[in-house]
Amino acid sequence: MPDQDTLPTPAEVTGGRPLPEAVGRHRATIDAVLARRDRRLLVVAGPCSVHDPEAALDYARRLADAAERYADDLVVVLRAYLEKPRTVAGWTGLLPDPTLDGKGDIATGIRRGRSFLLDAAATGLPLAYEFVDPVLAHYVADLVSWGAVGARTVASQPHRHLASWLPMPIGMKNCVSGRLDTAVQAIQAAGLPHTFPGVAADGRLTTLHSAGNPAAHLVLRGGVAPNYDAASVAAALSALRAAGLPPRVVVDAAHGNSGKDHNRQPAVIADLAAQIAGGANAVAGVMIESYLSDGNQPLAGEPRPELSVTDPCLGWRRTVPLLEQLALATRRRG
Ligand SMILES: O=C[C@H](O)[C@H](O)COP(=O)(O)O
Ligand SMILES: C=C(OP(=O)(O)O)C(=O)O
């Protein structure tokens, strides 16, 4: 008999409900936007973390409605982040800790998290996901259309190998200090074939052979200083060109670019919208940390469903005008 800490196999959890047929289409669309074959702007928006699946679905449905309204200019993707990398310690997300209290019931987290991802995908939105733990990737990757390797793991060989194997565009974030070279090297590494250990569908450890991911790209998330302004974007494009990589970036309005202050995200988006309207074609996408209510809350006791328990997010009412602004800027860019 498996004890309660034994995890289900990937096949046991991925076999339950049919895969949304749209995932392949979403990945191809996002790839075309990043390669600038599609003139639209990628907008990755959503909560810093999902702690209450019902409330996050409420958010997803609102975002799906808005995505439809702006579909001529924006390709909107839901941040469906179920794992959190921590600087030192803290809640690590719904997948590894679904009861939000450090008990770490990962088996329940995998089932609950996957069920959330399937419900979120049913809204019609493509899903974004940060791959924090390479083992857990095998339980969710089939539902993800845009992946991220975060600022705290971008130097890690297992993450680069995983990115080289994953079948969706992967954003490599500049590291926490703001240095770009680690992320540029991560894009180069992910573009190559690798052989590394992973988890097979039947749960056995296996040797994986990757072909290399041609759609890995840079995400500017700021560091000790922001890097969303036109001069920083130009410097990033030069670094990409010097490394022989396509000059295209996604810019994160949160994290180091807003000093983790959600109130600063609108100013970052305004600056990016001005760059885009002015013709900055290499800005292929933006990222916004947005949720139902403005701000965040400490994780103690029973958390409010509509308020982030990790980084502060911009509330829904303040998010909609930003989508409008980005759609308009993209239309002007032509
Ligand atoms: O995006 C979320 C956080 O910035 C990230 O998980 C790190 O958080 P921490 O510095 O509070 O640990
Ligand atoms: C942790 C995140 O970002 P970063 O890696 O840029 O800190 C995130 O997007 O949730």
TrEMBL record:
Catalysed conversion reaction: D-erythrose 4-phosphate + phosphoenolpyruvate + H2O = 7-phospho-2-dehydro-3-deoxy-D-arabino-heptonate + phosphate
Pathway recorded for this protein: Metabolic intermediate biosynthesis; chorismate biosynthesis; chorismate from D-erythrose 4-phosphate and phosphoenolpyruvate: step 1/7
A GO CC term attached to the entry: cytoplasm
Keyword flag Glycoprotein: no
Alphabetical UniProt keywords: Amino-acid biosynthesis, Aromatic amino acid biosynthesis, Transferase
Entry EC no(s): 2.5.1.54
InterPro entries: Aldolase_TIM, DAHP1/KDSA, DAHP_synth_1
Pfam family for this entry, one: DAHP_synth_1
Class in the EC hierarchy, top level: transferase
Domain DAHP synthetase I/KDSA, chain residue ranges per copy: 33-320
Coiled coil start-end: none
GO BP, one annotated term: aromatic amino acid family biosynthetic process
Renumbered residue ranges of the record's region Disordered: 1-21
Record-linked NCBIfam families: aroFGH, PRK12755.1
Functional summary from the UniProt entry: Stereospecific condensation of phosphoenolpyruvate (PEP) and D-erythrose-4-phosphate (E4P) giving rise to 3-deoxy-D-arabino-heptulosonate-7-phosphate (DAHP).
Family to which this protein belongs: Belongs to the class-I DAHP synthase family.
PANTHER family (UniProt xref): PHOSPHO-2-DEHYDRO-3-DEOXYHEPTONATE ALDOLASE DAHP SYNTHETASE (PTHR21225), PHOSPHO-2-DEHYDRO-3-DEOXYHEPTONATE ALDOLASE, TYROSINE-INHIBITED (PTHR21225:SF12)
Entry protein name: Phospho-2-dehydro-3-deoxyheptonate aldolase
Organism: Amycolatopsis albispora
